[in-house]
Amino acid sequence: MSSSSPSGDLTERRGIPAAKFIQDVETYLSQSNLDSNSALAFHQERLQQYKVVEMKLLAQQRDLQAKIPDIEKCLEVVATLQARKGTGEFHKVELGYALNSSMQTLLRPCEDSFSSALLADFEVSEGIYSRACIEDSDSVCLWLGANVMLEYSCEEATALLKNNLENAKASLEVLVADLQFLRDQVTVTQVTIARIYNYDVHQRRVKQVTSTAIAAADA
Amino acid sequence: MQQQGKSSGSEMEVTWEDQQNINTFSRFNNRLHELEDEIKFSKEKCENLEDAGNELILADEEMVRFQIGEVFAHLPRDEVETRIEEMKEATCEGLAKLEQEKASIVSQMAALKKLLYAKFKDSINLEED
């Protein structure tokens, strides 16, 4: 590619090559030794590649955007449990159950309901709920993935979740910046395609005019 | 995105500055669409919380089931009331911020439109389909 973008913009970001801005279509074509058609094909291919990357980034963005409220929910649950910590005393712990997709707390089937323990209805299976008492507890178990669950004190759990939340937010920010960069490249490429196309149409028209002029002169 | 269509055959000089303006416009346009979705979502959430709050006033039960995470916790009504009130406030605050951002983007887009149309006339189309 020949012509350059005047400002000292970066030439790539996270492996995404920047689209170069073309100052003048004619010099660009002659310098890169391309005719309009092959230049168009080249830029169109580029555009397709950009679109593929955009889809990937968008999928990542969706994942992160779903993850953030999930972590926030977990934090909310821990906070609720901590706020509940009070007087009630419970013994035997029998049931581990998901309080949230990534969090578990120890529950036991509930009979004696009136105490400071948190009474909760939780989904056993789709549409089926069961009631449980969440006993006063200093700890929750966090689902770490890879079939591993670890018990944390409420404070530690909050710190860990907060940290995760920060990380998720930071990666989302980077991702959004990447997407923005990518979209700029898409726009540059689209404009370039339009300009090459117009240049081509213009050239053809000029050629036609001159050839009819020559024919007229001959006659 | 719809910033092409420089149809008339005349050779129009496009400078790097123009290109940057077009890029910015495109960015704003994208953000505007995102914002519209976010605003719609926020509004719905706000209304739902409002409804829940009203429902709660009418309810005569002492304990209410309140969803935290995926679990319905049995909580006393006044606690749920304050929680819903807090959630509503936070949501409405967020909504106001989104509306503000939208207004600023709309006005910046209008300014860019003026600039670009002045230069490219009908060789550029910046309207939604």
Give the helix proportion of chain B (percent range): 55-70%
Number of H- or I-type helical stretches of chain A: 3
Helix-strand pattern of chain A, N to C?
A: EEHHEEEEEEH
Q: Compute the number of strand runs of chain B.
A: 2
Order of helices and strands of chain B: HEEH
Give the oligomeric state of the chains in this entry, treating copies of one chain as homo and distinct chains as hetero: heterodimer
Please state the structural category of chain B: mainly alpha
What is the rounded distance between the termini of chain A? 44 Å
Rounded mean pLDDT of chain A is 80
Question: From the alpha-carbon coordinates, what is the Rg of chain A to the nearest angstrom?
Answer: 31 Å
CATH architecture descriptor text of chain B: Orthogonal Bundle
Number of helical segments with 4 or more residues of chain B: 2
Mean pLDDT of chain B: 87
Coiled coil (chain B): 25-52
Subunit structure (chain B): Heterohexamer of two PFD-alpha type and four PFD-beta type subunits.
GO cellular component, one term (chain B): cytoplasm
GO molecular function (chain B): unfolded protein binding
Describe the structure.
The complex is a heterodimer of chains A (219) and B (129). Chain A is an alpha+beta fold and 219 residues long. Chain A has a domain at 61-171: Orthogonal Bundle (Helix Hairpins), CATH 1.10.287. Chain A has 3 helices and 8 strands, in the order ββααββββββα. Chain A has helices at residues 25-31, 36-84, 154-218; strands spanning 12-13, 16-17, 95-100, 103-109, 118-125, 128-134, 139-145, 148-153. In chain A, strands 3, 4, 5, 6, 7 and 8 form a 6-stranded antiparallel beta sheet that branches. In chain A, strands 1-2 form a two-stranded antiparallel ribbon. In chain A, strand 7 and strand 8 form a beta hairpin. The longest helix of chain A has 65 residues, at 154-218. Chain A is rod-shaped, with a radius of gyration of 31 Å. The model of chain A is unreliable at 1-8, 87-99 and 106-114 (pLDDT under 50). With 129 residues, chain B is mainly alpha-helical. Chain B has a single domain (16-122), classed as Helix Hairpins (Orthogonal Bundle). Chain B has helices at 16-58, 77-120; strands at residues 63-68, 71-76. Chain B has a two-stranded antiparallel sheet. In chain B, a hairpin with a 2-residue loop joins strand 1 (63-68) and strand 2. In chain B, helix 1 (16-58) runs antiparallel to helix 2. The longest helix of chain B is centred in the C-terminal third of the chain and has 44 residues, at 77-120. Chain B is rod-shaped. The A-B interface holds A 5-7, 21, 23, 73-74, 76-77, 80, 98-101, 103, 118-123, 129, 180, 183-184, 186-188, 190-191, 193-195, 198-199, 201-202, 205 and B 1, 3-7, 9-12, 14-16, 19, 22-23, 26-27, 30, 63, 65, 68-74. Chain B: InterPro entries: PFD_beta-like, PFDN4. Chain B: One of its GO terms (molecular function) is unfolded protein binding. Chain B: This is Prefoldin subunit 4.
